Amino acid sequence: MVELIEGRVAQAALLIMVLLAIYLVSLIASRRKLKTRSIPGLEKIDPWIQRAAELKRTVFFTPGTGAVVSPDTLAALALLEYVAKHCVEHGARIIVANADFTVQQVTEEIVKKAYKNAGKLDEYRPDSVRYISGRQFAFAAGVMGLLRRERPAVNFFVGEFSAEALEISEAGRTEAIAQFGGTSAVEQLPFFMATCDETLLGEELYTVQGYLSDDPKATAELVGPDGGKIVAILIILVGAILATFGNEVLVNLLKL
Amino acid sequence: MSKRNILSDPRLVYALLILVVTVPILSHAVLPVPVSATTKAVFDFINALPANSLVVLSFDYSTSTVPELHPQAIVVTQHLFTRPVKMMFVAQWTDGPALTDAVLDAVDKGTKKYGVDYVTLGWIPNLATIIGMTTNIAQFFPVDTLGNPTVSLPLVKEFPAGKMASLVITFATGEPGLNDYLQYWQAPFNIPIAVGATASAAPGYLPFYNSHQIVGILISLRAAAEYEILIGRPGLSGAIPAMVALSASHALIVVVVVAGNVLFLLRRRKSDGDSK
Amino acid sequence: MSRRDLFLQVIIFALGFFYAVTYYVRVSEPVDLQAVGDQLFAYLTAMLTAAFAIGLINLTRVHVNNIRRKRPIWRYSVVLVVSMYVMTVVSLISSPFAIDPTGAVIPPALMDAVNPIWEFLYYKILVSINASIFSLLAFFIASAAYRAFKARSVESTLFLLAGLLVVIGQAPASDLIWPGFGAIRDWIMAFPTTAGERGILIGVALGVIAFSVRRMIRYSW
Description:
By secondary structure, chain A is α/β, with parallel strands linked by helices.
């Protein structure tokens, strides 16, 4: 027997509408070669890494405390690929700190692959990628100690973070020449904005892969979710106007 | 060290903060604590629960947020033990079961009996359990934290499914936490949810409160102090004496920010004057 | 795409599509798909638990190596290894996470003897240390606020004023000075803050949908 689950029919319809909108806008964007606004932080990554290499100091990266299944962590890993590649290119040592052992395995592979692709596998050091702790504040304490000892020039705090975000970014701020933050956790964004030179706000985190990619379809990836936003804005506007006049049709429809 | 360096040194702020927090606590200063609407909402909702309702308490915080959430858990649990309701204790965070035990040790259980009026089911390992226990608790929690088969517990026989709950209270420090209960308990079954939150997480829960998806929010240690007053048990969780320290630290932040801006504007004026 | 990548991508797509469908549609015959999904989740939990065990082994290997080679701060590695294993053993014997809570295999006398040790290590050491590290946030917030709240422009002045009003309003004593502070705080939290948070939440949700679908179908659109 197959039946739609009560309370989720409207959600399913909304999801289909949003997916269609994303697809259509992406299609239009790729055909019309739309220009997108730049994300300044991402363009500064390479010069920062170059500067770290000139100063003979390390680059620090942490994908946060999320599991490998978290979208924030996956987006962070996409950025790590880019950062690791440029660190190897410029000769800057990279240190990666992890809070989840499955993420540790993936980050090890990413960093090793960067060295291998550049033909410098002999320069890879196993202690470049470290597992600190699965506990939130044990991880924070470990990272704070690491930042004080290693004194990296550039810090990347990108991924899923909770309360430890401010602690580690503030600890890194004193010695670093630049800090880059990014998370979708709304309550941690103000802390990154206060302590980092550049911050990826919310959904910008998921556009990193597209933005840094050489693929011409990349623009479509960046613009696609805006299609979903158009749907959301229209529904909110229509719903707000109807509700103001006492009409609950849309509210009841969305409860189906 | 020059005067400019001292004023720019964050350690001055740290030293002042230590002072404004420790002096009120050591002097046992006490303040009247006005009760906020979000805390009262939780209190009123619990008071209005019909007799023999089931309340599910979810301990979704770790040892790091004990100072903020543990006092809330103590006062709310104590309130529930004085009401004619039944309770199930679960946890989405691994520290939850131990913290549940600590809370149960701290409250007066009155005449309520384990197994009949309350049970501790333990840690919820994954999303399937959160979803599955709404329809069959015993299948997803075959034993409780004491090793008793849950099918033998009178409370689980009376409430075999989580969707029979009249209220879920989650003391949440992050994820997993409120969102899982909103998605899988509140949305499909309309079970009322209340949340005990840390001060930094509370703004993120306000949209749900304002849209009536949650019945109330307990915000940080202050809510525990307010709740102590509401249930007439001042001193139960130790939150009230901390209110003076809390107010003093807030005042220090304001003073520091204003002072920082005054210095900033003076320096800017001076450098503008020098450049002319 | 290599055959291995294609195989992995098919699994990713199949599982993603399966969970998306079973979230909206209940299929009870001929196979109860919801039960299948629950079972897969149980396997995932088991796998993640196994990964945790590998993490334990890796940490032991790295720190025992540090001790053997007397690397800098090797003494902290001793503390780490000893505390890790003592806590593991004690917790397994007698704690809310004990492997034999009914005392069928482990003698109850041993459990009673070990329990106070566990309670001391957990409540007096672990809780205290964790709470202390979390409390560092108060100092960092103070120094970050001192640095970040500067009236450099019109926007930052508005940001500064709103922040100060909320900080004042959150203090328990503020309602005693003037009840208006609480009302202002409630208005700021209920309207501008909620509006901003909702906007970011919607944007993030849409970003996650697009990101997840791209991962599932490995197609950039």
